């Protein structure tokens, strides 16, 4: 199965969509006030504690603010802090806190409230060691409108970490439990443009505009989020006018983009590459500990065919772990252009010879590997089935298993996998925060890299890059790290993911922000 099987899979998906939508003409119209939007998400908003990673980020962004924000071009802009100064040695950050801001429960958001939030994070020190907390000295509040962070050593990713939503967003001190948030919060109260007014688990959530918001008030007064897990059901709801918008890279597949881009009454939008869809190879696995096997799997992966036949070219093929437009990643590293013959030769040279059943063996052991994917992702399942057939051609038995998301993520973090799907974190986290997360057991990378002989040196360079204050020094460290990842073949980049939106004609202000996880309702309006 090469292009023929991919096209069959794509055609099957398209046929399912045509059967469902075949009887529908143009879009139906459901009248609603011009200051309301109905959005669909594939799951519930979940726990919106701003210091945890369990809740939906688009919802947390509606409720909470950070000290600063990050523009789409990567520059920093004021938010709860109106200005800041960084000492020449990179150890002291002084923020002037915006005056007159209140949380939606009436609590004042001043420097003391900011301090309460950072102190609340003390309960998460182990969890967030990949952030500046690992080099924190202390905080200071010289007055009600000045907040100071003192570091033990410079931190290159400091401003980015403060600008992304999690885990440094601010909630009302009143909702903390004994001054901490690690055991949850009593309510979801922030200073953001919206507040949560109604929520029925696994059914819907309603957000209404914060009329006391310190910034420019959004045009949209009310946002209703419906929970619709099934992809085709979401698309039908959009076509019927029951919802106005579907937004997110995991919410929309290539078939939907292709269909709605030519459908009257609807518009589609795609972002620039947002992150890299990849496979992580667990180098502690006895088979995958062999560099020749890892390189063979890289050569056996036809990224171009996956891009063209599963994603209709919307997701370009990825030859490197980070796209070239990512800071510090525009360098020459070893690449693995698709070549099944080279893959077979590498395995043969490594002592893996084909048995009677076509599967390679070595010292009585089958070349059999398990690929774990997120069962909630239609695309991961499709890619898994394709790779299973492709790898079989070079004598590799690939056993594929889909798991519910939480189990899948638990196994990833614990390193309980041979091969698993993952993504780099995307802008603005890349590459600093993404790589910093690899030095601690945050996701699967840490466990999977333990069999790389240069792991200690890779980690040292990642940490040094975050300490160095000049671009030239950082570039040297990141060049080493990215070159090692390529040469050690511990990752199989597949495609560069893009963010996607499909929406009803007349809805304006749709755009992609610096984070692929945000839905900027506050910029939207009806024509």
Helix content: 25-40%
Based on CA atoms alone, the radius of gyration comes out at 24 Å
Question: At the fourth CATH level, what is the homologous superfamily of the domain at 275-498?
Answer: Dipeptide-binding Protein, Domain 3
Provide a count of the helices: 15
Which CATH architecture of the domain at 275-498 is right? Roll
- Please outline the major beta sheet: 6 strands, mixed
Number of strands: 23
Which quaternary structure do these chains form? single chain
Based on helices, strands and strand pairing, what is the structural class? alpha+beta
Give, in spatial order, the strands making up the sheet with the most strands.
13-21-14-20-18-19
Which blocks of ≥5 consecutive residues have pLDDT under 50?
1-27
CATH class of the domain at 275-498: Alpha Beta
* Gross morphology: globular
Task: Kindly report the CATH topology of the domain at 275-498.
Answer: Dipeptide-binding Protein, domain 3
Please give the alpha-carbon distance between the first and last residues. Answer: 48 Å
